[in-house]
Amino acid sequence: MAWTEYNIMDQKLKFIARILEGEKMAPLCREFNISRKTGYKLWNRYKTVGNEALIEQKRTPYRYANKLPLQVEALILDTKKEFSNWGAPKIREKIKRRFPEIKLPAISTIHAVLDRNGLVKSKLRKKKIYEATGTHLSDPDQPNELWCADYKGEFMLGNRQYCYPLTITDHASRYLIACDSLATTKTEFAIETFTRAFKEFGLPKTIKTDNGSPFGNGNSLYGLTQLSVWWLRLGISIERIVPGHPEQNGRHERMHLTLKKETTKPAASNFLEQQEKFDKFIKYYNDERPHQGINMKYPSEIYKHSNRIYKGVEPIFYPFHDKTVQVTRCGRICEKGLKISISRAFAGQELGIKEVEDGIWVVSFLDYDLGYFDEKNSRIEPVGNPFNQKVLPMSQV
Fold first, then answer.
1. pLDDT of residue 356
2. How many helices (H) and strands (E) does the chain have?
């Protein structure tokens, strides 16, 4: 507890005096109605600074974080005036060499000083790396040539939790491969669903989705995500519809209408019960419901498992490249002083780099050329979208 409000200085004097006379801390703190922590704090301060310990200490900081001394800020501005084209790193280094005794702030703080005083010429704007426009869309008539995937719009269960059903269908046969009751659209849960589907049904040649998470990402190179990069590693091509045109995945959307009508009105009380409703719907949709689009047949009468067995990702080799490099967790290539931003979608993946001209390198993933960088640039320059093509990667030929 705190000291009583009246005559705080006198209270502290009496407290310290009685400690000096040899009284015990615990009973004395009880008498003065303070905690032992407060008592020991005052006693230790008294032993350090003497009577100044009895003066009430200000609770406001004597120095605010990121608040520079005026002299240092003036020195930064004077140096900028002298070297008007220099940025924060050079200005800091110049001051450090001229005045080694001064404790300098970080480069980011110096940049903030310059910015605050209107001395930063331009601010880099975060630009959209990839503008989703859709890709070539195929219309195969054989099972496993094309799978379609999407999340049916979220809905609330009886326990007030939201459910995000992840659905997968075979384009040619209309076969409903998976309908998983998920609590989120995070990548790791989507990968679990697709892994189970791949193990049970084999691998498709292509998967078609929209551009939303976790299938696409407008701030990533070519809109790729960890999920779509994983598909590419498995030898699966990618198709994406044009944003705002769900009719380009019309067969799958039509299935969603039936799914919603049969399983979500009313919704189940929890995820387990909802998954049971989805499982019954899968059986009904594949084995009991005739489809006009396939001459009133059942999807199970047409669909057959893929002959491409799921074996996980295979090692990557780049025999025609100069180096094989691994992308860091933050999505960069860090190689002998180089720091080239690629995309977090490739985190942990191995890429091939090859010098095609003096100081200019091409970056490749599998059989795709992602773009170029030079040794003075910190970001890859994309080429035309290598994934928007009709031909299959070499791993599928």
1. 82
2. 11, 13
